[in-house]
Amino acid sequence: MMRKEKVKSFLRSFTPYQITYLAVVFALTFGFVIFFPELMLDSTEGLLVTVCSVITVLANPLCELLISKQSKLNFVVDFFFIELTYLVISLALGWYTLAITVVCFWMPIDVVSYLRWKKHPDREDENLTQVKRLKLWQAALVVLAIVAFGLLAGYLMQFIPGSEDSYLESFASAVGMANGVLLLLRYSEQWFAWFITTILYICMDISAGAYILLITEVAMLVNTVYGFVKWLIYTKKHPTVSEKK
């Protein structure tokens, strides 16, 4: 009975804006998947890869919205419907570097993040997780780490035959991983990292001529702004959370 009440409470937590956002993004994404599958999916070769690609594409906006809602369930969606399906895709297409990244970084960080978020529920609303803000010196260290990793990885990638946009890819990976770590630690600055990551992905897609992918990426930018504002309001209302270690 208690479980049913929690499910009902969670479903009631979706605002009209959030429901509308999901409906519009799902409709647009699914429409483009049907009419332009070769442009929206990683591959259409083989039923398993195609199904996994569709699941990954549709799960992304839901995961992003759950993050903006400060819901720990975003890690469940990411693990089973994004990382696991992307692992299948990577192995099937021979993208072994990406597969290793998924197994060694993103899947473990999803598990750890879920467990950490579970320990910090909001005192007034169990559907929310407490979030906080970085101190200025902490933010400076994060920026320095991103720049150092991006420059080093970009330099090394130049020696890989056939590598393109090495520095762009490296910085996208560096900021993306910073986003994952900041999200794990519940810092609102993860939205800055995700915003920059999305912008870099947009630049990569434009340079590759994959203009149709801009539809979902613009949708992610809209949710990023929404999530940032939502988390900012929360941290201002709960300043003591940021002071705790």
Brief digest:
By secondary structure, this protein is mostly helical. It has eleven helices and no strands. The model has no long low-confidence stretch (mean pLDDT 84).
Name the overall outline: globular
* Poorly predicted ranges: none
The SSE string, one letter per element, is HHHHHHHHHHH
Number of E strands: 0
Number of helices: 11
Structural class from helices and strands? mainly alpha
Tally of distinct domains = 2
Radius of gyration from the alpha-carbon trace, in angstroms = 18 Å
What fraction of residues sit in β-strands?
Answer: under 5%
Overview of the molecule:
This protein is mainly α and 245 residues long. The chain is 78% helix and 0% strand. The chain is globular. It folds into two domains: 1-129, no CATH class; 131-240, no CATH class. The two termini are 35 Å apart. Helix 7 runs antiparallel to helix 8 and helix 9 runs antiparallel to helix 10. The chain has helices at 2-12, 16-35, 37-40, 47-68, 73-93, 96-118, 136-157, 166-184, 190-208, 214-237, 239-243. The mean pLDDT is 84.
